[in-house]
Amino acid sequence: MTSIVRDQWYVAAYGREIGREPFGRTVCGESVLFWRTEAGRVTAMSDRCVHRRFPLSEPPSHLVGDTVVCGYHGFTYGADGVCVAVPGQTRVPRTARLKSYPVVEQDSFVWIFIGDPALADPARIPRAPWLDMPGWTAVSGMEPLAARASLLVDNLMDLSHETYLHGGYIGTPEVAETPITTEVDEEAGIVYVSRRMADAECPPFYARSTGIQGRITRWQDIEFTPPCLYKLHSRIAPVGVLPNGDGTDPDAFHVEVVYAITPETESSTHDFWAVARDFALDDEGVSDFLRESNRTVVLQDVAALDVLERVLTGEPDGYQELSINIDTGGLAARRMMARLAAGASGAGGAGAGAPGAGSSAAGASGAGAPGGGAPGAGRSGAGQRGGGSSEAGASGAAAVDVAAAR
Ligand code: FES
Ligand SMILES: [Fe+2]
């Protein structure tokens, strides 16, 4: 059974990757060809010629005007995927057309809808405006991950791992020590996890980019819109410096860390990452440092998750996990992903109520306190749906066994 939720928007590429050369990438198990028309519009269609399945992204396939010519025998397709010419005859078979996919270019990403095109509502694509917005500078990249997408979701929803896996880069002791709050907006289809450190060591990632000396107030507010777009709203300021009453925050540094989690296959993932900042906008040295540091951090995750994928593949079915408080965000994300997989629509899909993966641990999220002013309304504590009576955690009370969800 597939774990990939198809009727959703996924990031397929950065806009800068798609130009006047055929570009192939596998998304949700489908081989997709991308190219830009002469007017600059991104197209997406099957990357397999209908004749003998030669990949249209593979040389000597090539573009001629607003058509792509198969490099094997010359079948030629328009921007809508319809075949317009075949060799040796004037009649083009009526069925000679490539599957074409809805695409939207937005916030520097190319989004694709792999499932039923009738369900592809562009208004449901979540936004990451800082990646392509005046007043912000962004660096970005993509690393291939030889692990299922759900492992990356787990990883990003629980940042306590920064202390251990990313020590010396972004991790400090306070990250693992500070409790989180988790909230779920069922209507909007968003999971929030907030960790606010009032007095923390400043990790090199922020010390060198902001120039702050000494200890900091560090906020990590996660906003995940399953299945693909993850945003970490990061606020860094000298200890004691808080936003003004009117919401302005001139003395803090803001970093938006964005991930797009796109399944390539059942067991591999495109790990798109971006870091946008509202300071040192024109400082190439800061850009280079953040790009290199974040890529290093991403590759630390990739190495760990690649190992984990190999381990899990070798496990017998029905293995058990043990979840504690730090996992409430990840468990909430699993429940929402399971609901999407069960057929509820994404945003606006509240009420479907599929129990979902890992539901036996819903109580672990029982705390569910408000997220200290993170944006959004109408949210509920993540534990609410599951009873929410137990509060596992450092105190050792009521750690919860979770049936393996994958
Ligand atoms: S495989 Fe494409 S034209 Fe023959
Ligand atoms: Fe990480």
Structure annotation, total helices: 6
For this structure, the CATH topology of the largest domain is Naphthalene 1,2-dioxygenase Alpha Subunit, Chain A, domain 1
Which structural class do you get from the secondary structure elements?
alpha+beta
Largest sheet: 8 strands, antiparallel
Quickly give the CATH architecture of the largest domain.
Answer: Alpha-Beta Complex
Amount of beta strand: 25-35%
Morphology: globular
CATH superfamily of the largest domain: Naphthalene 1,2-dioxygenase Alpha Subunit, Chain A, domain 1
The H/E string reads EEEEEEEEEEEHHHEEHEEEEHEHEE
Mean pLDDT: 87
Keywords: 2Fe-2S, Dioxygenase, Iron, Iron-sulfur, Metal-binding, Oxidoreductase
Domain Rieske: 9-112
Protein name: Aromatic ring-hydroxylating dioxygenase subunit alpha
Biased composition (Low complexity): 391-406
Write the layout of secondary structure elements.
Blueprint: E1 9-14, E2 23-27, E3 30-36, E4 42-46, E5 62-64, E6 67-69, E7 76-78, E8 83-85, E9 103-106, E10 109-113, E11 137-145, H1 149-157, H2 162-165, H3 173-177, E12 181-185, E13 190-200, H4 204-210, E14 216-225, E15 229-238, E16 253-265, E17 268-277, H5 284-313, E18 320-323, H6 328-341, E19 380-381, E20 400-403
Antiparallel strand pairs: 1-10, 2-3, 3-4, 5-6, 6-7, 7-8, 9-10, 11-17, 12-13, 12-19, 13-14, 14-15, 15-16, 16-17, 18-20
What key phrases describe this protein's structure?
single chain; 406 residues; alpha+beta; Rieske Iron-sulfur Protein; Naphthalene 1,2-dioxygenase Alpha Subunit, Chain A, domain 1; 8-stranded antiparallel sheet; 20 strands; disordered C terminus; binds FE2/S2 (inorganic) cluster; binds fe (ii) ion; Aromatic ring-hydroxylating dioxygenase subunit alpha; iron-sulfur; Cholesterol_7-desaturase; 2Fe-2S; metal ion binding
